[in-house]
Amino acid sequence: MEMNKGLEVKLVSHRYDQYQALDQVSLQVEAGTVHCLLGASGSGKSTLLRIIAGLESPVAGEIKVNGLTLYDEQTNTLPEKRPVGLVFQQYALFPHLNVSENIGYGIRHLKREQRSEMVDKYLHLIELPDSRDAMPHELSGGEQQRVALARALCCEPEVMLLDEPFSNLDSRLREDLRKLTLRLLKDADVATLLVTHDPQEAFAVSESMTILERGKVISAGSVRELYYKPNSLQVAKIFGPINSFSSHRLNAGLPPLSGQVTELAGVTEEGMMLLRPEFIRLRIPNGDSNAIVRETVNEGSTTLLLIELDTQLDVFARILNPASFGVGDRVFASFNE
After folding, report:
1. CA 221 to chain centre
2. pTM of the prediction?
3. Rounded distance between C-alpha atoms, residue 327 and residue 330, angstroms
4. 90 lies in a domain?
5. How far is CA 35 from the centre of its chain?
6. Do 324 and 195 belong together in one domain?
7. What are the tens digits of pLDDT across the range 219-252?
């Protein structure tokens, strides 16, 4: 069924000479939601954003925004005619223009009074009401990025493309600006596509995501599904340590641990069950130990443990801090019941 709202990318392919940058990529982003495009450098993330914005033309595919075709075999809407905003990792402000002139750059066709009102509106929204006359070099990195966001929002786009816009900021500022940005975009009912190579950022901001590798979609779905029920070991490892067990042995009544296997587990085409470390339960043994702790990694609020079962099988487990176990301790391990 055709989407009535948001962004739809269908079977988009692109080449640079002999290099296949994108290979039949499809995704959908509903209005008022955030969708993450996750992948390593060179996976095609930024290329796809440039194509959606109209800065490059694909060799095949279709792009629609709120049901309106921007690109297909017969159509190629000019970038300035697309209801699409784009914010890059680099702020790309015009250094010779002040803040108000930068924000109002895309609405120069409006009357001066109307343009001034819109600039004031977005200066307040980005919490820089007194910086109207400041020059870009007088602002901090976070302030410059807020101005870049306001410049994109001022054109009232229906789709916003964010190309790793927070990666140059320190961790606390990055989190604060990310929250502000996504709140403004959701309030404006904008379909937002955020490019990142950081799985933790993807978890923090998006309802759904598409994972690219070498120009191909290797998995897509809700954040919860991709984390807890990945369709392959390759996808599972993107989000951290994972346990893999033979589902055939489990079905045959030969589980490696006692207890009930949680429903929050993925199963691969090869018949492997994938289970996150937090679904392995550890307790102090009462004469019934079945494993020894080999390694521990402090993750902050949790500790990741590598334990070796008496059957020589290595298993990851995750427990809340302060950790109850250390390297060399005997434990009793089971599936969470």
Report:
1. 11
2. 0.86
3. 9
4. yes
5. 7
6. no
7. 999 988 999 999 899 999 999 999 998 876 666 6
Whether residue 307 contacts residue 313, with contact meaning beta carbons closer than 8 Å, is answered with no
- Co-location of 130 and 211 in the same domain: yes
Cα distance between residue 189 and residue 34, in whole Å: 10
- Into how many domains does the chain fold? 2
Whether residue 240 lies inside any domain: the answer is no
CATH code of residue 182: 3.40.50.300
Question: Encoding tokens for residue 298?
Answer: 């402090």
pLDDT digit string, tens, across residues 274-306: 999 999 999 999 989 999 999 999 999 999 999
